[in-house]
Amino acid sequence: MGELHLDIIKDRILKEYKVEVDFGRLQIAYREIPFHKLTDTQNIETKISSSKQSITVKLTVEPVEPPTKMKDVLKLDKSPEYASNIASIFPKHLVAVKQGIEVGLAHGPKISCPVVNTQVTLHLLQLGKGTSDTVIAATVTQLVQKMLREIGTSIMEPIMNLEIVTPAEHLSIVMADLTRRRAIISNVGVRGNSKLVISKAPLSELKGYSTILRTLSSGTATFTMELGEYVKMAPAMESIAIKNVRGF
């Protein structure tokens, strides 16, 4: 939903229901990715009621770039050292492991955003008799989150594919504004009697852009945008993003 749509809804709520609406700051859907590869093991022995729960799990967490190389978030280590153990794992236990991984990757250590482009390899899973699927999933989640804290993560920001149609007399000022917004202009063409500017720009730099573009072009320019990709942020820009998310 665009900012104009939100403004229209806000106006309708005020007119129809006489309710004042305050919008919070626009939240950017950042992502996180691990810095490097790490292997670790977790051993848990506990009692739930009268049932003893015992589990040993060994995982490797690593970034995968490009993500097209990754078929699934969970990879099984079928090397000679671990093949027999992996082959003996019941399918329902593998489901619990995968659920634990997905929960562990749901919130990164830096700004609590989803961790993406990441693969987790299961090397070893040893279970005591009667160990529940819930304990398996929880142990895997704890290990994944612990490893992510040790590795550290980079923040990835959404980059939008942006197309702007503007009269020629406003082209230079529109392009200058795009450059200021860290945009990369890939092409300037013609659409009818207007100029077509094709570019990529970080979503964080496009807050309120519809209003700004109308001002720059005296209401004559239009634009469309859609999500293109996520890219790692430079350290200086990452610091700004962290401050914006945390509020300090």
UniProtKB/TrEMBL annotation:
A GO CC annotation given for this chain: mitochondrion
Keywords linked to the UniProt accession: GTP-binding, Mitochondrion, Nucleotide-binding, Protein biosynthesis
Domain called Elongation factor EFG: residue spans: 154-240
GO MF entries: GTP binding; GTPase activity
GO biological process: mitochondrial translation; ribosome disassembly
Top-level taxonomic group: Eukaryota
Name of protein: Elongation factor EFG domain-containing protein
